[in-house]
């Protein structure tokens, strides 16, 4: 049974979300002290975090940064604010997806299920756990990229994007293909979300001097270049 940590201070909404998720056999935990979220996160060791932006003490962005400093667990944001910058910021801080309040519970459930399939089950159909790319080693089990410049840990979204691109190295992968692969159904994700995730991956790879190997093909998609050996 997957464990979900739901960080939501609206008691009524918390109970409704918990009840709906429990119907799908997810084990849902709340937060007792909004000033000590990290202590409760470490204690519960959830498989996913669903977090509101507006919270007591510190906002959701703060806790997302804190969680990302220690874990690559998938994070799904909830927000009643409708400014596009909130979605962009959540992705830049390492979130995997974003749900705008008010929302249909069917959409929330679909996003949760898609994230769990992507994060915890995609390796079932992919026996290759380690891949070499431009002198770097991509370890899909450890979610790392390593070369002589160092080791970079990736989030699940970043790793999966790199997986898709390197499986089609030196070929353009359309944005539509990537959205369908990542989020199962393009109706549940904005085009901007993909842009933010790819840009974040490229920025991380720059620390290993690999960022230039991920190219944007305007009007087409993205390509992972590989040098001739």
TrEMBL record:
<dbReference type="InterPro" id="IPR011006">
    <property type="entry name" value="CheY-like_superfamily"/>
</dbReference>
<keyword id="KW-0238">DNA-binding</keyword>
<dbReference type="GO" id="GO:0005829">
    <property type="term" value="C:cytosol"/>
</dbReference>
<dbReference type="GO" id="GO:0032993">
    <property type="term" value="C:protein-DNA complex"/>
</dbReference>
<feature type="modified residue" description="4-aspartylphosphate">
    <location>
        <position position="52"/>
    </location>
</feature>
<dbReference type="GO" id="GO:0006355">
    <property type="term" value="P:regulation of DNA-templated transcription"/>
</dbReference>
<dbReference type="InterPro" id="IPR001867">
    <property type="entry name" value="OmpR/PhoB-type_DNA-bd"/>
</dbReference>
<dbReference type="Pfam" id="PF00486">
    <property type="entry name" value="Trans_reg_C"/>
</dbReference>
<protein>
    <submittedName>
        <fullName>DNA-binding response regulator</fullName>
    </submittedName>
</protein>
<feature type="domain" description="OmpR/PhoB-type">
    <location>
        <begin position="128"/>
        <end position="226"/>
    </location>
</feature>
<dbReference type="InterPro" id="IPR036388">
    <property type="entry name" value="WH-like_DNA-bd_sf"/>
</dbReference>
<keyword id="KW-0804">Transcription</keyword>
<dbReference type="GO" id="GO:0000976">
    <property type="term" value="F:transcription cis-regulatory region binding"/>
</dbReference>
<keyword id="KW-0963">Cytoplasm</keyword>
<dbReference type="GO" id="GO:0000156">
    <property type="term" value="F:phosphorelay response regulator activity"/>
</dbReference>
<dbReference type="InterPro" id="IPR001789">
    <property type="entry name" value="Sig_transdc_resp-reg_receiver"/>
</dbReference>
<dbReference type="Pfam" id="PF00072">
    <property type="entry name" value="Response_reg"/>
</dbReference>
<keyword id="KW-0805">Transcription regulation</keyword>
<feature type="domain" description="Response regulatory">
    <location>
        <begin position="3"/>
        <end position="116"/>
    </location>
</feature>
<dbReference type="InterPro" id="IPR039420">
    <property type="entry name" value="WalR-like"/>
</dbReference>
<keyword id="KW-0902">Two-component regulatory system</keyword>
<feature type="DNA-binding region" description="OmpR/PhoB-type">
    <location>
        <begin position="128"/>
        <end position="226"/>
    </location>
</feature>
<dbReference type="InterPro" id="IPR016032">
    <property type="entry name" value="Sig_transdc_resp-reg_C-effctor"/>
</dbReference>
<keyword id="KW-0597">Phosphoprotein</keyword>
């Amino acid at each position: 049974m997957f464990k979900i940590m739901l960080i939501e201070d609206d008691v009524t909404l918390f109970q409704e979300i918990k009840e709906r998720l429990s119907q799908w056999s997810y084990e849902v935990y709340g937060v007792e002290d909004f000033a000590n979220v990290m202590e409760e996160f470490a204690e519960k060791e959830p498989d996913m975090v669903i977090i509101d932006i507006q919270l007591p003490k510190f906002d959701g962005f703060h806790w997302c940064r804190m969680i990302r400093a220690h874990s690559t667990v998938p994070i799904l944001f909830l927000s009643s604010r409708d400014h596009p910058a909130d979605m962009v910021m959540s992705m830049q801080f390492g979130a995997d997806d974003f749900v705008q309040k008010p929302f249909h519970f069917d959409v929330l459930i679909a996003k949760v299920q898609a994230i769990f399939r992507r994060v915890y089950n995609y390796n079932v159909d992919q026996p290759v756990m380690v891949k070499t790319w431009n002198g770097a080693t991509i370890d899909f089990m450890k979610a790392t990229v390593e070369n002589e410049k160092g080791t970079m840990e990736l989030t699940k979204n970043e790793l999966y994007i790199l997986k898709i691109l390197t499986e089609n190295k030196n070929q353009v992968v359309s944005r539509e293909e990537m959205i369908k692969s990542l989020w199962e159904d393009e109706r549940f994700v904005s085009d901007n979300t993909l842009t933010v995730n790819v840009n974040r991956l490229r920025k991380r790879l720059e620390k290993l001097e690999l960022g230039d190997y991920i190219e944007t093909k305007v009007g087409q998609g993205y390509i992972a270049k590989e040098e001739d050996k």
